[in-house]
Write a structure and sequence with these properties.
With 118 residues, this protein is mainly β. It contains 2 helices and 5 strands. The protein has helices at residues 3-6, 56-66, and strands spanning 21-33, 38-45, 52-53, 78-88, 91-99.
């Protein structure tokens, strides 16, 4: 048995993605996540049961796709979910990235100080 099936996650993980996929934002909720029960935004997408916990970088990907920093404006926006890696506590770990679709020009400027790859 795959270990990920033995310990299923409530949220989408990079290992759940086989490749990039274009998805439409269905809703943004605010949920308590992690051991500290931090209140974080979570994006849900049409056709996918699990949500993606948003951090600043993922949120900025949706901002660029939608042209708005208001989470209410993100519903109905197409974005790309893709498996990626990032540095966490000195280790390279898998993560999910979010960016605008390539067929659609990103809206708005990239926030200063953020290095967000396309």
């Amino acid at each position: 048995m795959n270990i990920n099936k033995a310990f299923p996650s409530k949220y989408l993980k990079a290992s759940d993605l086989d490749a990039e996929m274009i998805v439409k934002v269905k809703s943004i909720t605010f949920e308590e996540v992690g051991p500290q029960k931090d209140r974080r935004p979570v994006a849900y997408f049409e056709g996918i049961e699990k949500g993606v916990v948003l951090n600043k970088t993922r949120s900025n990907g949706i901002v660029r796709a939608s042209g708005s920093e208001e989470t209410n404006d993100w519903v109905g926006v197409d974005v790309v979910l893709y498996p990626s890696t990032t540095q966490f506590q000195g280790e390279e770990v898998e993560c999910i990235g979010i960016r605008p679709p390539k067929h659609k020009k990103p809206v708005g400027p990239v926030p200063s100080g953020e290095d967000i790859p396309f």
